[in-house]
Structures are given as C-alpha cells and as structure tokens.
Amino acid sequence: MDPELPLIFAFVLTLVVTVFIMGQIFHRRAVRHEERKLELEAQIEQAKAQQATRGDADYRKFEDRLRVLERIATDGNHALAAQIEELRSLDAIESRSLSQEKAR
Questions:
Q1: Which of 14, 27, 49, 60 is 20 to 30 A from residue 78's alpha carbon, by CA?
Q2: How far is residue 15's CA from residue 30's CA, in Å, rounded to a whole number?
Q3: DSSP secondary structure string, 32-90?
Q4: CA separation for the pair 29, 25 (Å, rounded)
Q5: Do residues 4 and 11 make contact, with C-beta atoms less than 8 angstroms apart?
Q6: pTM (predicted TM-score)
Q7: For the segment 6-55, what is each residue's pLDDT rounded down to a tens digit?
Q8: CA-CA distance, 42 to 36, in Å (whole number)?
Q9: pLDDT tens digits, residue range 59-82?
Q10: Between vectors from CA 53 to CA 52 and to CA 55, what angle results, nearest 5°?
C-alpha cells in the first residue's frame, strides 16, 4: 500500500464533506428565500384584497351621497328649498356675527 494513499483519501473525503456542507447551506438559503418570497406575495395579495374592500366601501358611500343629491334635485317639495334657504341665511348670520366678534 502506498503511504500517500491515506493522505489522498483524507483530502478527497474532506473535499466531499466540504462540498456537501456547502450544498446544504446553499439549499437551505434557497428554500428560505422561496418561503419568504411566497410570504411577501401572500401579503401583497392580502393588501390588495383589503384595498379593494375599502374601495368598495368608498364607492358605496359615494353612491349613497349621489342618491341623496338626486333626491334633493328631483324633489318637487318646496319646503326642502325653503329649508336650504334658511340654512344659507343662518350661515350668513353666523359669518356676520363672527366678523363682528373679531372686530371687537
């Protein structure tokens, strides 16, 4: 038996073990990266779903307001117009009183 043979065997064994360990490390990092990527994609989808839900709520609010405005515009009731005019006159009175208080 050649005296260098155990030394060569030890070198090759060390090299194989080193490559195997490095392969394990690289594989674990790749798996963790893929898991993190999937988690982030899931968070993005969840945020989009929440935004769509909020958008629907805003759209419903807008529709409700539009219905109220349509009712006001198409309402033949003259009492409603009188109430609006009363509110305008109250606003004018309040703005005059505020300006007088500021002048004092």
A1: 60
A2: 22
A3: HHHHHHHHHHHHHHHHHHHHHHHHHHHHHHHHHHHHHHHHHHH---HHHHHHHHHHHHH
A4: 6
A5: no
A6: 0.46
A7: 999 999 999 999 999 999 999 999 999 999 999 999 999 998 888 877 77
A8: 10
A9: 888 888 778 777 777 766 666 667
A10: 60
